[in-house]
Each structure stands twice: as structure tokens, then as C-alpha cells.
Design a protein that fits this description.
The chain has three helices and three strands, in the order αββαβα. It is α+β, with helices and mostly antiparallel strands and 130 residues long. It has one domain: GMP Synthetase, Chain A, domain 3. The protein has a three-stranded mixed sheet.
Length: 130
Amino acid sequence: MQGTRPARIGEEIREELSLLLQREVKDPGVGFVTLTFVKMSADLQVARIYYTVLGDDKAKRESKKALERATPYLRRQVSQRLRLRRSPEMFFQYDESVERGERIESLIQEIHAAERPAPPDAPPDDDSRE
């Protein structure tokens, strides 16, 4: 279980990175990136940053490359702004949980649509009226 300090530092890093990506990173490859969660190691040396991207697979690939290019700059800025003794190593990882959630939601809606009875004014489907 993650302690309160790593969770707090992770949230601060997420907020700071969001601002940096929005205002200071000029790489057009970053695209529409949303940082969803930062998981810190217990010793605060490693930060796994989970993100989502608005767009298709090509946008995802371009955003991943752009984030990897910007990582040294982002690491330096976060370390300075949060006044951390040691700057954590940052690893960006695509967050698939959003897509999985949307897929599950669509499956549930399909099941509910299939279970609904036909409207009362609809003619019956049997062919006994011939």
C-alpha cells in the first residue's frame, strides 16, 4: 500500500506536469494529453505517470514520442518547482483503463438494449396471421 507522502507528492507532480505540458512544452506532438495518475515509489525515486490521449493510434504514438523527448526538461522543472531533494525518474505509460471502461459501458448498454421488451404498438414478429 502506498503511504500518504508518496501519494501526496505524486498528486503534486501530476498537477505541475499538467501545467507544464499545457503552458511551456511547445512540442506539437504532445497533442491532447491528459495526465490521469502518478504512482510514486515508496522512496520517491520513480514516478510512473499515466496519461490518455484524445485521438487515434497515430496520435497516441506521436504523443508518446513527444513525452519521451520532453522528459528531461519536465524532470528538471518539476524538481525545481517542488523543491525535491532528488528528482524522481519519470516514466510515461499510456492509461488503458479509460478505454476499458468505455468498452465495458458499451457492452452493458448493448445488453440492456437486447433485454428491453418490444414497444406495445409494434406488430408481433410471428407469422401466424397469414
